[in-house]
Amino acid sequence: MQKIIIADDTSTISTRDRGLNYGDGFFTTAKIVAGEVEHWQHHKARLIECAERLGFSAIDFTELEQSIKKRIATLSLNVLKIVITRGEGGRGYALPTHSNLTILISVLDFPTHYSSLANTGISVNISPIKLAAQPLLAGLKTLNRLEQVLIKNAMAKQNCDDVIVLDHQNNVIEASAANIFAIANNTVFTPSLEQCGIKGVYLQSLCDKLAVEFKQVSVLELTQASAVFICNSLMGAVAVNRIEQHTFDVPQSQRLLNELLAKEAKC
User: Fold this and answer.
1) Which residues contact 222 (CB under 8 A, 6 or more apart)?
2) Cβ distance 234 to 222 under 8 Å?
3) Active-site residues: which are they?
4) pLDDT of 90 above 90
């Protein structure tokens, strides 16, 4: 069973909802272009994986997709957010015997600053907040996002557009709300997400087009790369112009990525 709520000024959610009380849920955020959800199959796969790994009941995608299609049919450029919780029930942390999913669908304005960042590139510093390791949740976009709240709060005092977030072994993991990948010697690599971090939809779609190596990455290795990018499903891939004091040539970075994509498209 599931209950779909279309978010507006009159929407309500139970004070006993497990998503509200325990963060017992997950979400995805997608780009709406001309009445369609970009990379929908990857967003759908993300929701399915989250539900399976967290022990949720199966999502009725027929109903969900119909509700989304009706809501976004006339939109040209917006943001779709889908939040799924386990609903009400259970004693404390214990799971309910039968769960009734709550699905919240929100449509938001598209961020206006992404287009300018695509042209100028994005400056990043190193966040003082580090991610804890939890392989049971690694890769998933759950509702437990307090680390990201702390990261954004600390970032407000740093002179940069975004930050690189490390784990407690000082491995590079991700940006504040995006993945990181780099190009070196005409190969693409990205940080391993086996212990923490989120495997984003844009990164998944990039793996469909290019051979991407997942491995442990240090900050030094990033600064020695030919090009570094941050990416998510809304902004796409944006070249990094600076990591702390080390600078990159944004047009060259964009050219390297486009050349790799064009080469793979011909294969």
Assistant:
1) 164, 172, 180, 182, 228, 243
2) no
3) 29, 141, 174
4) no
